[in-house]
Amino acid sequence: MFKTTVENLLEAALNDRPDLFLIDFSIEGGNQIKVVVDGDNGVLVEDCMFISRAIEHNLDREEQDFSLDVMSAGATSPLVHKRQYKRHLNRTLKVKTASDKFEGTLSSASDENITLVWKVREPKPIGKGKVTVTKEANIAYKDIVEAKVMIKF
Q1: How confident is the model over 66-113, as pLDDT tens digits?
Q2: Which CATH number is 25's domain given?
Q3: CA triplet 132, 135, 138: central angle to 5 degrees?
Q4: Fewer Cβ within 10 Å of end Cβ, the chain: N or C?
Q5: Could you tell me the CATH number of the domain that includes residue 144?
Q6: Cα separation, 92 vs 88, whole angstroms
Q7: What are residue 111's phi and psi, to 5 degrees?
Q8: Domain range spanning residue 40?
Q9: What region holds the Ribosome maturation factor RimP N-terminal domain (predicted)?
Q10: 77 lies in a domain?
């Protein structure tokens, strides 16, 4: 009952803000509500406050004791939603599939897959020395085990 009420309030808040989307939601022991959101344009503190108020202001603390944490997906958190990829175009990603690992620049993100591009040094086909070659991988979302944005300083 309590979880359904919170889910409905969260869904209504996200409907009011279509630029935001849910990454994770749980209610743990002692009614500890945890909500993780992301946004097409990132997430500001005000966005977390909007979601928090939409839930908290519609629950009665006299009726149900609870704690509420609303946070944005962290910079080092794995990407879990297709919409997150579109926001990270032209950034370096490290992607694991069941059979391989890739690190490259995210050049495109469609509804079915992503494309990573990277450069490698390979031996020349003829003669001595090496040449820089551009490689590309198209990876279906369903094949991605984990994808993270690589933070460069």
Answers
A1: 999 999 988 789 999 999 999 999 999 999 999 999 999 999 999 999
A2: 3.30.300
A3: 170
A4: C
A5: 2.30.30.100
A6: 8
A7: -75, -20
A8: 2-72
A9: 19-75
A10: no
Residue with tokens 């945890």: 34
Contacts of 22 (CB under 8 A, 6+ apart): 10, 14, 35, 36, 37
Cβ burial of 121 (10 Å; 0-12, 13-18, 19+) is exposed
The reply to whether 62 falls in a domain is yes
Pairing, β 32-39 against β 20-28: antiparallel
Q: What is the dihedral of CA 14, 3, 29, 39, to 10 degrees?
A: -10
- Grouping H, G, I as helix, E, B as strand and the rest as coil, residue 44 is coil
pTM of the entire structure? 0.81
Place of tokens 């933070």: 151
* Angstrom distances, CA of residue 34 to CA of 17, 18, 23, 51, 120: 19, 20, 11, 11, 42
| Total residue length of the chain | 153
Boundary-marking domain end, from 72, 103, 129: 72
List pLDDT tens digits, range 46-58: 999 999 999 999 9
